[in-house]
Specification:
The complex is a heterodimer. Chain A contains 12 helices and no strands. By secondary structure, chain A is mainly α. In chain A, helix 2 packs across helix 7, helix 3 crosses helix 7 and helix 8 packs antiparallel against helix 9. Chain A starts with a helix and ends in a 6-residue tail after the last helix. By secondary structure, chain B is mostly helical. Chain B has 13 helices and no strands. The chains are: A mainly alpha, B mainly alpha. Chains A and B meet through helix 2 and helix 9 of A and helix 2 and helix 9 of B.
Chain lengths: 267, 260
């Protein structure tokens, strides 16, 4: 456990170095946030029918999405890890006296956390002081906020356990581009990043709620805005834990399978 | 032009060497805008219009911006890798050759897998065209073609502009994504739905509005005032490339080798 922790800490400090990149990232995220909100505002303004999620909840959803983008996007890539596999340096990783699944898990987790620490707080802070149609609202009460935090962290762990499968697949395909594209496009749609899940038609929702992608970001964001009531939130958190367990066990199993067949490519 | 075609042939051949990977990537590229399309489709199942634009009219906006983006990305990708050319010093080699710098950088890379993306855009466009009521006349057809050309020129101009920045910064800048990906994302919907500052920025600074919004107002008979201005707007978009090329030439003159 201690070795995982130090890998984690090292990566975290490493990731914090890129401050200028983070500022550029924040500006980009704001631009996208404004564009998305304006689109939804135009939709809500030109139609009077009632919707499954309110305008204010949608705005909050979008700002949370923009500030925690590094937590939730599936195409987050650690180029070093891909290089390890394709260049053959994976051999060094394998001789280390530490389980590779846990090692990579903590590396990926730290990479995402450091990215988010630099970006999310400034974005959230500004989003709170924006003028009315764009302003992000506070959660309805303290308990909701605590539930949100718990479910956000669990969501992050689920995302990392999903992306582990992308890295495992690279052992088989030797090229990350294909699986990245596939996981990215399909997963992000099912996670509610293209449009929030409440806007989707019923038949898609039925599929979405069976798969693990929606517990990564859609669920925590809706808990925050009060769209998912507290008693349902607790059930949601339990599903997150269940998914995390299933995905980690399955991931370790697959990892063992591919490592048995791994051929180190010269070097 | 002959040189350009030669570059095209060589690079197409080299990419076709890995045939399966090529086909898979094309397929993947097909599905990227497909999920965006599905998103808009589902939104319109909940809401029936956006600022007076119907689903098929928005689909015209959407398909045109994705068509021009995929074409520009396919051919102007060379500028995307430009920071690497500078860093490694390979740009020196380009400078001593007796040909224009633009055509050589252009020819350094094409991304043919974007054909999947292009195909998706064309399918959506045809579908949308069958479902909107446009009273076609030769003039409208010309305007329609000009829209596509205008879009390709604007995206190419932006690619050149961001590459030019590398002369000063050596590294590429992430903020340039606001113009490329952001422009594409924004252009999926008619420009009229956005707030004034967005509308002004994408009309007068980076003329994305000239690609689909303004000419579509003319094609769909949506505007009430001066038709001529809306008709010629794509030409303004094409002219956007001129300042970009000027800046590029300033950059080339300013260039000092990194010496590696």
């Amino acid at each position: 456990m201690k070795s995982y922790l130090s890998v984690f800490k090292l990566r975290l400090i490493n990731g914090m170095q890129y401050r200028i990149a983070a500022i550029a990232g924040i500006a980009t995220q704001f631009f996208f946030g404004f564009i998305f909100i304006m689109v939804f505002e135009a939709f809500f303004n030109s139609n009077t029918s009632s919707q499954p999620i309110s305008y204010n909840q949608t705005v909050t959803y979008i700002w949370l999405e923009q500030s925690f983008l590094v937590f939730i996007m599936l195409w987050y890539r650690d180029i070093e890890l891909f290089d390890l596999i394709t260049s053959g340096n994976i051999a060094y990783e394998l001789v280390r006296p530490i389980k590779i699944y846990g090692l990579w898990f903590s590396k990926l987790l730290a990479g995402r956390l450091s990215g988010a620490l630099l970006r999310s707080f400034p974005i959230l802070f500004i989003a709170f002081i924006l003028p009315e149609p764009y302003k992000m609202s506070l959660p309805p009460d303290i308990l909701t906020f605590i539930l949100f935090c718990v479910s956000l962290i669990l969501g992050l762990l689920v995302v990392v356990s999903i992306t582990m499968f992308i890295y495992i697949s690279v052992f088989v395909t030797l090229s990350p581009t294909g699986s990245m594209l596939l996981f990215g496009v399909l997963g992000e749609f099912l996670a509610g990043i293209i449009i929030p899940i409440p806007f989707m038609p019923e038949w898609i929702k039925r599929i979405v709620y069976i798969l693990p992608f929606h517990v990564t970001c859609d669920m925590p964001f809706r808990i925050y805005s009060g769209h998912i009531p507290q008693n349902e939130a607790i059930v949601g958190i339990l599903t997150q834990i269940l998914w995390l367990g299933v995905l980690v066990i399955l991931g370790r199993f697959c990892m063992k399978k591919v490592l048995k067949k791994v051929i180190v490519q010269g070097g | 032009m002959k040189l350009f075609l030669k570059y095209l042939k060589i690079l197409l051949k080299s990419q076709l060497q890995y045939r399966t990977s090529f086909i898979l990537l094309c397929l993947g590229q097909f599905f990227v805008p497909f999920s965006l399309f599905a998103g808009i489709y589902f939104m319109f199942q909940r809401f029936d219009n956006i600022s007076g634009w119907s689903f098929y009219e928005v689909m015209l906006c959407f398909s045109i911006i994705h068509i021009v983006f995929s074409i520009s990305e396919c051919f102007v990708r060379g500028f995307d890798n430009f920071s690497a050319l500078i860093r490694t010093g390979n740009f020196d080699r380009i400078l001593v050759r007796p040909r224009g710098t633009i055509i050589q950088v252009l020819g350094s890379k094409f991304e043919f897998t974007r054909i999947g993306r292009l195909l998706q855009g064309i399918i959506v466009m045809i579908w949308a065209l069958f479902n909107v009521s446009i009273r076609w006349c030769p003039l409208k057809l010309i305007v329609f073609l000009l829209m596509i050309i205008s879009g390709i020129f604007i995206f190419s101009g932006i690619f050149i502009l961001t590459a030019t920045l590398c002369f000063w910064t050596i590294q590429g800048l992430e903020i340039a994504n606001v113009l490329t990906d952001g422009g594409r994302e924004m252009g999926q919907y008619p420009l009229g739905i956005y707030k004034k500052w967005v509308k002004n920025f994408f009309t007068y600074i980076i003329p994305f509005g000239c690609v689909n919004y303004y000419p579509l107002m003319y094609l769909l008979d949506k505007n009430t005032s001066n038709n001529l201005l809306y008709m010629i707007s794509p030409i303004v978009g094409i002219l956007f490339i001129v300042p970009c090329l000027i800046v590029w030439n300033i950059g080339v003159k300013h260039y000092k080798s990194t010496g590696s």
